[in-house]
Every structure is written in structure tokens, then in C-alpha cells.
Specification:
With 334 residues, the chain is of the alpha+beta class. Helix content is 28%, strand content 32%. It folds into 3 domains: 115 residues, no CATH class; 115 residues, Jelly Rolls, CATH 2.60.120.1440; 71 residues, Phage tail protein beta-alpha-beta fold (3-Layer(bab) Sandwich), CATH 3.55.50. The protein has 9 helices and 19 strands.
Length: 334
């Protein structure tokens, strides 16, 4: 999408500024925003106070979804996080700052919208500063070393950890990665939150969840360390840890692993709330489930990641829900 450019601080009709501000919001919500967009938005907001006010007005329209977020937040951790946004100050910026002062200045100019995006509609500042990032529905394969490949799932971002100019691991900032280190010449480490996942001869996946970090060993052996605990995962074993403790290791069925690397979302008697949460990872905008009484109802099926609106339509018909479409590809199911 091309965002209209404003050549200078001349007087413009409010409707024209509103339209341009809405275009900026749509650009951010598309999942395709890049660092240059943050810089361009900072410049646009600085043209005049009217421009800055127009963007704040467009942002408030997202905030008008707060009542719906409050109703749905018991089943949606991201919506629960939105409820507490308020006027929270911007988070400290990491040391990796290839965007320089531009993002910091723009975040100060337009509030927390870029730092803590409502409903996760666009990437956070931290994600924009990553070495590698995927947008909504995008996947990417990286050959970080001759013997290690990393596949990034949708809405994922990572930083590369290197020593003497050679990659030795990654910092998982957002999302999910699949690591193939079956022929690694030295330990390859994934740092996520307060934990470390390492292997020299294994395939494994690491995913950031609302409740912590999920590590799954697919092949070989993987070591997971956090909070003084250090365990080894064998094939088809999975563990979730958070900032406080390591969870219990559980054995999983290979069928539980979603074939996202083949462009498919697969569900087998999965609770509707979890299905909606997964759709939200891969689809621009947001699906909000207000029919909380149906949240535990099971859903089974396979859906193509590139055509998830069909999945929403099937869910709507299956549970006889009403669907309301809002700007920014937001769909409210009630």
C-alpha cells in the first residue's frame, strides 16, 4: 500500500488529514511495516500539530475497541494486555538500535502506539529493531551457518548472537522458530526470555506463548536451562518455562505439531479460543471472539494459511455466529 505523501506544512482539510492518518494505520496494521515506515511516520506527524492530532485520532479508533476487548479478554491474553495499556510509559529500548533516534522520537511523538501496539495489530519497536523479522502470514528460512538453518514462522523476529563474526545462536524476540542443528559443528543456542535452549545434533522448535516459552524436541537431544533448572529433552518431548520456573516435561504426539512449514494450520478437537488465537497469528488484523460460552467447543480441520478468511466463515457457520467487520481487517464474532 502506498501512504499518501504530504509535501509540506500547508493548510489541509481535516478530512484529507484523517484519510492520510487512516492510511498510516492501515499500513501499520498490514504487517508489512518496515523501519523506513516508522521514520516516515515520525516525519509525517512532525509536519504540523494537525497531522499529529489526526494520527492520534486514528489511533483512538482502535482504542474504541476496548469494550469488546474487555468482554473477550478472559479467553484472549493479548486482549487482556490491551486492557492495562492505559497511559503506560514507553518501554526502554534495547541496545541494538539500527533505527537510531528516529524510532525513539516517533514513539514519543505518537505515544505508545508503536511501542505497545493495541491488539498486536502492528510490530512493536523491539520487533522492528530485530536482525530478521517476518510479517503476518510470512515465513522465512535462514542459513545462519553452513550446518544450521532457522525457519521463522509468522510474526516472528530474532537477533543473531555472534562471536568473532560467526553466528552461534539467536535471541527470539517474538514468534516461533524451527531450528535444524543436526550437523552443527558447535552448540547452537536460542535465548528466549530468561532461558536458554541449546543443541549440537538436534531439530527443535521454540515458541513464545502468553504464558511462557514452549520448547519442543523433534529429533536428537535438546538442553533447556532457566532459573537454575537444566533439563534434557528427547524426541517428541515438550516443556514450557517462564521467568519463574521450568514446567513439567510432557510427551507429545507428532500429530500435535502444526505443519506450519507446509503452509497449513491443522486442528484436532482444539478449543475454539485456541483456534481463533492461531488464526490471529497468521492473518492481518484481529479476530475477536465475544461468544465466550463457545470458547471450549472443539474444532477440527485443516486450513491454508494464505486463505484464513474461509476458516473464519466456516467457524461462523458452524457455531451460528454473527460477524461484524471493522477497519483494519478486524472481525468481531458474537
Amino acid at each position: 500500500m502506498t501512504v499518501p505523501r504530504d509535501p509540506g506544512p500547508r493548510q489541509q482539510a481535516p478530512d484529507a488529514l484523517d484519510a492520510q492518518a487512516q492510511a498510516w494505520v492501515r499500513r501499520l496494521a498490514s504487517g508489512a511495516a518496515r523501519p523506513r515506515d516508522a521514520r516516515a511516520l515520525k516525519h509525517w506527524c512532525a509536519i504540523s500539530e494537525a497531522h499529529a492530532q489526526a494520527f492520534r485520532k486514528a489511533h483512538r479508533q482502535w482504542r474504541e475497541l476496548l469494550p469488546a476487548a474487555t468482554l473477550a479478554s478472559h479467553a484472549d491474553p493479548e486482549l487482556a494486555r490491551l486492557r492495562t495499556m492505559g497511559n503506560t510509559a514507553a518501554l526502554p529500548l534495547p541496545r541494538r538500535m539500527f533505527l537510531g533516534g528516529a524510532v525513539a522520537a516517533s514513539a514519543a511523538a505518537i505515544g505508545v502506539a508503536l511501542v505497545r501496539p493495541p491488539l498486536d495489530l502492528w510490530p512493536s519497536v523491539q520487533a522492528l529493531q530485530a536482525d530478521f523479522r517476518t510479517g503476518v502470514g510470512e515465513q522465512r528460512k535462514l542459513a545462519l551457518t553452513p550446518t544450521v538453518t532457522v525457519e521463522m514462522n509468522t510474526r516472528s523476529s530474532l537477533g543473531v548472537r555472534a562471536a568473532n563474526g560467526q553466528p552461534q545462536g539467536i535471541d527470539l524476540i517474538d514468534g516461533e522458530v524451527s531450528v535444524n542443528a543436526l550437523r552443527a559443528a558447535q552448540p547452537f543456542t536460542v535465548v528466549a526470555s530468561e532461558g536458554r535452549v541449546s543443541a549440537t545434533d538436534a531439530r527443535f522448535e521454540v515458541r513464545r506463548l502468553a504464558e511462557g516459552i514452549c520448547v519442543t524436541c523433534i529429533e536428537g537431544q535438546v538442553r533447556v536451562a532457566t532459573g537454575g533448572s537444566d533439563i534434557a529433552l528427547m524426541p517428541s518431548q515438550q516443556v514450557v518455562y517462564d521467568r519463574l520456573a521450568m514446567g513439567a516435561v510432557r510427551q507429545i504426539d507428532a500429530a500435535e505439531l502444526s505443519p506450519w512449514r507446509e503452509g497449513i494450520l491443522s486442528f484436532r478437537k482444539t478449543a475454539l479460543t485456541q483456534v481463533v488465537a492461531e488464526i490471529n497469528r497468521y492473518r492481518p488484523g484481529r479476530v475477536v471472539l465475544l461468544a465466550r460460552s463457545l470458547g471450549d467447543r472443539p474444532v477440527s480441520g485443516r486450513f491454508h494459511i494464505g486463505d484464513l478468511d474461509k476458516a473464519i466463515a466456516q467457524i461462523q457457520r458452524l457455531f451460528r455466529l454473527d460477524a461484524t467487520s471493522l477497519p483494519g481487517a478486524i472481525v468481531v464474532l458474537s
